[in-house]
Design brief:
- With about 170 residues, this protein is mainly beta.
- The chain has a single domain, classed as Jelly Rolls.
- Helix content is about 5%, strand content about 50%.
- The chain is built from 1 helix and 11 strands, in the order E-E-E-E-E-E-E-E-E-E-E-H.
- A hairpin with a 4-residue loop joins strand 8 and strand 9.
- The longest helix has 9 residues, at about 160-165.
- The termini are far apart.
């Protein structure tokens, strides 16, 4: 499962996270969202090396993969939500090179992009929960992390915008 660093200051359902990352090696790192426990969350993981040796979900690195975690016991995850292998998966820079990640989640649809060419998009169960980082046998540094809530609905015609229009 690895290590989690979770921001618990606010739960999010629809959000955008931007961050800078520097990876020292080639194991696994990614983002989690909808986190309420180790047994319930969504995640995106990037893996540059060839593990896992015997993949439980049938997917072996190098890759980028999105999962929905369902349990702390087998089976840990539903079938992969989305996966890409080279050449669609561009391995993350190693050896300390700075990289930038963006994850946008809106009504269950996620879009993950990097400044080095890796992208992954798909649909995940809608979960309100915390947002964070996940590492697996990885040494990495994270900086300039910005998480912002986004609107899930068009505000036009809603009570607050109607009242604001009437007050003008």
């Amino acid at each position: 499962m690895g290590t989690f660093a979770i921001f618990t200051g606010q739960a999010f359902e629809n959000f955008k996270i931007d961050l800078d990352v520097s990876a020292a090696d080639n194991d696994g790192m990614g983002l989690v969202w909808g986190y309420t426990s180790t047994a319930s969350h969504n995640r995106i993981m990037m893996i540059n090396d060839g593990w896992p040796e015997v993949p439980l979900d049938g997917e072996k690195g190098p890759m980028i993969i999105a999962h929905h975690r369902i349990s702390d016991e087998s089976p840990w995850y539903d079938d992969p939500l989305a996966v890409a292998h080279p050449p669609e998966y561009v391995p993350f820079p190693e050896g300390g090179a700075l990289q930038h990640w963006t994850l946008v989640v809106q009504d269950g649809h996620f879009q993950f992009t990097t400044d080095f060419g890796t992208e992954l998009e798909g649909d995940a169960p809608i979960l309100e929960g915390y947002v964070g980082i996940q590492l697996y046998a990885m040494q990495a540094y994270f900086d300039n992390i910005v998480i912002e809530a986004t609107l899930a609905v068009d505000p036009q015609g809603k009570l607050a915008t109607t009242w604001a229009a009437l007050k003008r």
